[in-house]
């Protein structure tokens, strides 16, 4: 069911994560670990503290834990919290992995957690309804020399405005109509991808885009598609705006992976190099 906060609908992320949970296996965990190692440019996270903001399924908490970090994970959605707790139970997280309900917009709560060597907020801040406040709160708990790893939807101008309307519509529709609506929205995108594969005489490329999707952060294409069409609140940011915001708070950009101006998230890893 869609929750409503301050008159605005909210996508039930946790429900989508609950469906994804059965797909979590060693291969996906290994891919998630690799994504952390690559972006954080480290072989492991031994002895480091890791804050998983908006942990969703808990897959990246598990990956960070496997890399040796002490993990604290939280999410605003109780069903997402239950997912992360289930992964912790399944894979034996021990005392070095805590999971609870909390909001990145709750400044007092976030500040009470202390400081972390890595603050990870992948695809979260733009779904809070207050992206800059959320980023401010996340940045505030990065320890000196620590890293802030975030992914925020790319600002595509009018296209982003149209997507916002689509996502809002999905969430205000009666539940029975959401899946047909999602398929209707997805169809032209899928048709475009299939046509491109056929025109370049590589039809298998389209099939691979589904079959090999797990190589992308260990996620599932179907669940990401539902998350993409339904994910609301929805805000976007230009990479330069994120860069300026973080630089003003004492951060230096260490790594950047853009979505090439297209639909999707830009990923940033910042290092806290100076006091804000
Ligand atoms: C697209 S999912 C990303 C999950 C995870 N970080 C990942 O990379 O797979 C966004 C998550 O942010 C959570 N979220 C939304 N608003 C939040 C808030 N104010 N505080 C904490 N989590 C929030 C949602 O419940 C959802 O699980």
Q: Spell out which ligands are present.
A: S-adenosylmethionine
Largest sheet, order of strands side by side?
5-4-3-6-7-9-8
Radius of gyration: 18 Å
What is the helix tally? 11
Along the chain, the helix and strand elements come as EEHHEHEHEHEHEHHHHHEE
So what's the overall shape?
globular
Distance between the termini: 40 Å
Briefly note the structural class of the backbone.
alpha/beta
Strand content: 15-25%
Largest sheet: 7 strands, mixed
Compute the average pLDDT: 92
| Extended strand count | 9
Secondary structure: helix percent: 40-55%
Would you write up a description of this structure?
The protein has a domain at 158-230. Helix 8 packs across helix 9. 47% of the residues lie in helices and 20% in strands. With 276 residues, it is α/β, with parallel strands linked by helices. S-adenosylmethionine binds next to helix 1.
């Amino acid at each position: 069911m869609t929750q409503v906060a301050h008159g605005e609908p909210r996508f039930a992320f946790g429900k989508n994560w609950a469906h994804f949970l059965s797909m979590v296996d060693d291969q996906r965990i290994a891919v998630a670990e690799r994504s952390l190692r690559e972006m954080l440019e480290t072989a492991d996270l031994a002895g480091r503290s890791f804050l998983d903001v908006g942990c969703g399924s808990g897959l990246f908490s598990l990956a960070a834990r496997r890399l040796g970090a002490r993990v604290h994970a939280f999410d605003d959605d109780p069903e997402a919290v239950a997912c992360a707790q289930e992964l912790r139970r399944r894979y034996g997280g021990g005392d070095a992995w805590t999971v609870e309900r909390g909001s990145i917009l709750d400044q007092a709560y976030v500040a009470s957690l202390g400081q972390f060597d890595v603050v990870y907020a992948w695809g979260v801040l733009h779904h809070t309804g207050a992206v800059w406040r959320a980023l401010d709160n996340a940045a505030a708990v990065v320890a000196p020399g620590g890293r802030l790893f975030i992914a925020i939807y790319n600002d595509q101008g009018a296209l982003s405005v149209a997507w916002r309307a689509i996502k809002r519509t999905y969430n205000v529709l009666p539940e029975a109509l959401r899946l047909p609506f999602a398929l209707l929205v997805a169809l032209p995108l899928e048709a475009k991808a299939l046509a491109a594969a056929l025109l370049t005489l590589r039809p298998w490329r389209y099939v691979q885009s589904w079959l090999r999707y797990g190589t992308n952060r260990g996620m599932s294409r179907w669940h990401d598609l539902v998350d993409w069409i339904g994910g609301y609140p929805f805000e976007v940011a230009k990479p330069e705006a994120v860069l300026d915001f973080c630089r003003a708070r004492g951060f230096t950009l260490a790594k950047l992976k853009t979505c090439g101006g297209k639909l999707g998230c830009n990923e940033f890893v910042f290092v806290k190099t100076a006091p804000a």
